[in-house]
């Protein structure tokens, strides 16, 4: 089956040119099925196995919603581990290369506090991090999520397995209620369904089982 092109979506020409320069021309199945919904502003639940291209799907969505001129945290991506958060931050920076001066800040547990506090004082457009550390910065009043328009839970199943429910609830309580929610997960157990129902209304659910 021929895969659809990124250029068939409503992504900006700057993002499309950058995708082409990265060698991203055709969308993977999960991207083809979720990106148009994401770009239309819908809440989306995307289920697909590792390597299916979930990161670019939500990252292009949050970059599409971003106002670079406004130097406030507008997108938050929560990941289960430091390694995953670092990988996502790298991918977002790569995809954002076309758009100048986007600041992506990683806030992960296990990393020293001092530099994170300094970076938070300087500000960021996008935060990627792990639940416990984000919660800690919120509780200390170092991070405001008042202007978040895109909220992403990546590998949501693993976050619940790791017992991050309370931290996630704290983070959600700090986000504006009018926001786009994107939840990505390799599996979809009942606990994830409950979480999705709790945070989203009328979400579109996409499941991709193929290797694409
Ligand atoms: P997942 O989060 O679903 O496990 P990733 O988002 O990490 O998967 O993607 C796996 C790999 O595929 C990454 O190296 C990424 O750069 C690459 N990739 C994603 N989408 C595309 C695409 N449309 N074209 C080419 N490579 C892609
Ligand atoms: Mg992933």
Automatic annotation (TrEMBL):
Motif position, Q motif: 4-32
Record-annotated Helicase ATP-binding domain positions: 35-206
Limits of the DEAD-box RNA helicase Q domain: 4-32
Entry's family note: Belongs to the DEAD box helicase family.
Listed name of the protein: ATP-dependent RNA helicase DbpA
Species the sequence originates in: Pseudoalteromonas maricaloris
Gene (UniProt): dbpA
Span covered, complete protein: 1 to 212 of 462
